[in-house]
User: Fold this.
Amino acid sequence: MEEIEKLKEEINRTRAELAILYEISNALRTTLNLDEILYIILTGVTAHVGLGFNRAMIFLVNDRENFLEGKMGIGPDTAEDANKIWTKIQQEQMDLDDLISAFKSSQSRIESKFDQQVRSLRIDLRDKNSGLLGLTVQDGMLLHITKETIKNYASDPLVQILKTDEMVVVPLKAKDKVNGVIVADNIFTRKPITKEDLRMLVMLSNQAGLAIENSYLYEQTVIKAHTDSLSGLWNHGYFQYLLQNEIKKAKNDNLPLNIIMIDIDDFKTYNDSMGHQAGDIILKEISKILRDHSRKIDYVCRYGGEEFVIILPQTGKKDAISIAERLREKIEMHPFVYAEVMPQHKITISVGVASFPEDGTTNSELIASADRRLYEAKKRGKNQICSSDIIP
Assistant:
């Protein structure tokens, strides 16, 4: 009789585990947005209706630069915060779908000290002393750091951030390649991490690794579809979409926004003298200069022909003018091939600057303002910036 009861308990637990994994799997199918995928994974790990860990975080591998970077962390900062959150979830009877829907509708990141700590951590995978995170990426094996063994890793960056006495580090895999790591602990409840917890976390991580890989593939497809083939910059159509989004954000959050419109001076002269293939090389070089010397938050786009446009989010006019001047100088000083055929024996640009909301509150208004000032800069003698309308 006792064996039958144990068997029933085992069956019920397995059913519950499968239900959790099924729910998480279904949620992962609803999106290809990376932030949403990461949130779904971490909510599945931490929610009481999921695996029930106190805290969890995700690190992703950056193949290009060969490091592991913190992407998102979910978990309270204190035990008091933990009790408030868990009480609210219980009172409102929120299930996994409710938690995920709340995140998607808010379209905002988790803002917590814990999340900031996670996002500040970068591990160089070329370093032999890359610690627990690096070891997990390299070996592709789960690490369960227990109360008895954690003292051996006291200097590890991960242990110093978590300040916990037990944790689990699990690789995320797709096509037999590690693309990230999940870390989880029970710092507040001090509940021991069991074999069942580890088994569930491994099964979830298998789904998570594939979901992240699919998100990457989708992102690459989107980038390819919206990239100008010659310059490698965002194309005209995607520029219009990006500008509309940034205007909406600027309106909602009362933030400044600027665009700078750029045109290569006397480019027809260069094409007529050296041919269009040589002109294409110049376009590629200028595109690279604009991209390399712009900020990470900026959107550098090819508007068409020899015109470029850069969206400067969260940027006032004074800073926009400084950025435009820096780019103008970089191009003027660059040793372009056959620049001597140009009227000034060098390749230069003229720039128009337009600000939201002073110069326009829609795509067409801002573009028209920047374009008007660009041609004013040309009228004044080229190789300069114009940021205001001339009043007759």
Remarks:
- The first helix runs from residue 2 to 28.
- Residues 281 and 335 are 13 Å apart (CA to CA).
- The mean pLDDT is 88.
